[in-house]
Amino acid sequence: CSAFVASPLRHARAALPPLAKAHRRGLTGAMGAVSKMEFSKLGDSDLVVSRCCLGTMTWGQQNTEEEGVKQLNLAFDEYGVNFLDTAEMYPVPTKAETQGATDRTVARWLKDRQRDKVILASKVTGWSDNVTWLPKRDGKGSRVTRKQIRDSVECSLERLGTDYIDLIQIHWPDRYVPLFGTMKFNETMYRDYEPFEEQLEEFKLLHAEGKIRYLGVSNETPFGVMKFCEAAERLDLPKIVSIQNCYSLLNRVDYETGLQEVCLPQNTNVGLLPYSPLAGGVLSGKYAVDTPEEESSKWRLNLFTGYMARYKQSLAAEAVDLYANLAKKYDMTPSEFAIAFCNSRPFVTSTIIGATSIPQLKENIGAFEKKWTDEMEADVDEIFKKYKDPSKV
User: Fold this and answer.
1) Which residues are part of the catalytic machinery?
2) How confident is the model at residue 391 (pLDDT cuts 50, 70, 90)?
């Protein structure tokens, strides 16, 4: 491992290591209430993160700034969450008119907080010809070049109103990989990309300047994780400590058949931060009931072109019904059951959840107190044998 792993920023106070003893134990929250939140160490870093990470991508689009602040207060003060995840391109769907609104919501909340009690993660946008409105991109598309890495981090710091980011992640690779619904690798789409070494060199400089503490990846493949880790070891560059990929009851195979082995502590020791544990809300069961168009038009699958059509053409609806029945069997809501599944995986460090309302947020965070049993595992396995990643058509 490189020196990057062993040395947190000099001004990012060493208030986190004592929490290591809180792993799998209760924590007294900021408001004095005792939470049952559990904690885990993230990869090779010294970050001890809550098993629940609060996602933020609806703030500024589906939620107002005020609503985002209320969600943060609830999660941190009443449930003991210490970890949140944002991105320079948020909220989603990403567009010029709202870009940065999520960060500004976080900044409003963060200014009244003790900074070293908050583990803040953000993301540098990956390769895109369509996202042309990010700051300092001169109206051009996004790349993971050294200049754009630096511009992204420095603009994020300004929006967030902080002088360092605990975990900076590459949102998706600079090179071609199948993404966001693409089912298989298309060799004809291969393109040149910024070398792994060059990307890591810039992150090393940003670390030396005290602007970032640790580095992670997102929407990455086994090849990418191995290349980043090999380059870091060979050249004494920052080693990635986390991977943020889609993972849920409906999307397991990609991680479990390749990345799980690569990311093992015995191998690269890269912690998984699964996003979309409810598969875009599908596993909550809300798509199985008739809902007024005024409300359903705001749901995730209706916000992204083609997502609803792909869902309806797949076997996912059948699987969702079966998992909902399991949840009922174990006296859980479908959302609680789906999140408890993710939280029970031995390779998961912290599961990223999101919500558009306070009741929904309470339900989702409450799922982390649910205990997973061998019987639940056996029941899930029976469904999984027939429905392996059923939303992929």
Assistant:
1) 90
2) confident
